[in-house]
Amino acid sequence: MGSTAFGNFNHFCRDSTLPVCNLFKEPPKSGGNGFGGCALTGIPLSNGNYLKNLGSILLCGVAILVTLFLIWRSERKKAAVGRREMQLFLLGYIIIEICEIFTVGGFPLNHRVRMGFTAAHLGAIVATLWVLVLNAVVGFQLLDDGTPLSLGLLLLSAVAMFVGTGYIALDTAFKWTGHFTPSLSDPNRNIGLYVLYQLVPLVFLALFFILEMVLVLRVLGERKPMLYLAAAALLFAIGQIFQYVISPHICRGTNGKINGALFETLFTLLSVVMTWVFWSSITEDDWPMPQAATGAYT
After folding, report:
1. Burial of 200 by CB count in 10 Å (0-12 exposed, 13-18 middle, 19+ buried)?
2. Which of 164, 92, 194 is CA-nearest to residue 133?
3. Cα-flanking dihedrals φ and ψ of residue 43, to 5°?
4. Could you give phi then psi for residue 44, rounded to 5 degrees?
5. What integer pLDDT is reported at residue 123 of this predicted model?
6. Beta strand 50-51 with 43-44: parallel, antiparallel or unpaired?
7. Residue 72, number of CB atoms within 10 A of its CB
8. Which of 55, 69, 137 is nearest to 100 (CA)?
9. What share of the chain is helix, strand, coil (3-state, %, to 5)?
10. Strand ranges for the chain from DSSP E
11. Which pLDDT tens digit goes with each residue over 163-213?
């Protein structure tokens, strides 16, 4: 694979504001983004520093508040299948948004501290999407939802995802073992992070949508919830298009004031909201009696 682009981050980091890029090069204060692309400068501060992505920072704050509201709303759905599991997914998303303030938002911060937030950000993305997949599995009631066994398996597996991804990110940034040190120079080739950050989330998302489609169409025999699920997928895809395709054009057109990361944050938030709406639409608020372990949706 040495002659292919698989595993390389240099072009992604040149054209987009990705958290993983913080691990490879310290962004210069001006004159480029460290990878030869458009420099996201945002609002100039003292001593040559910049608040690079104020829009993303503000949207992250909005996302945290909206998600807290969804957690509260979930708590009121006492009989809803997968209530605790959905709340754990939302908590994971809050962690992602907190990290994003410092990794993508460009809040002024010591670079080594920023790399720590980046490792947490990458780990949280993988772990949270894994929790999302398990939310889909819970819908089939293979285990009683909300039980210590169900939540324990979910949390332990998510923590393993978080720790594994975070360790590779930290080892890359701080050269603990030296194994990932070659990725710090062009073309920033890091197979481990490429798989965990670029490919695994796509696999988890695909699994989630496939499982939910089967649940809604084959088990529940409903069609209306598919509109919410399709909206969630579409909004997420639009956000990724802004991040990976449109971002450099926005950056150059605004002289580095904003780029696609702002819109990626917005559309991802809207996608999360629609995912919650979808979940809410296929759960029951008021069941006449508790369901057995083998029970299904009614």
Report:
1. middle
2. 92
3. -105, 120
4. -70, 140
5. 97
6. antiparallel
7. 11
8. 55
9. 65, 0, 30
10. 43-44, 50-51
11. 999 999 999 999 999 999 988 888 899 999 999 999 999 999 999 999 999
Residue range 228-240, pLDDT digits in tens: 999 999 999 999 9
Burial tier of 142 (Cβ tally within 10 Å: 0-12, 13-18, 19+)? exposed
Residue with tokens 């694979």: 1
For the segment 111-145, what is each residue's pLDDT rounded down to a tens digit?
899 999 999 999 999 999 999 999 999 888 777 77
Three-state SS string over 138-201 comes to: HCCCCCCCCCHHHHHHHHHHHHHHHHHHHHHHHHHHHCCCCCCHHHHCCCCECHHHHHHHHHHH
Let me know how long the chain is.
298
Peptide bond into 187 cis (omega under 30): yes
CA distance 213 to 220: 10
Q: What is the pLDDT of residues 89-108, one digit of tens each?
A: 999 999 999 999 999 988 88
The tokens for 110 are 């010591």
pLDDT for residue 295 is more than 70:
no
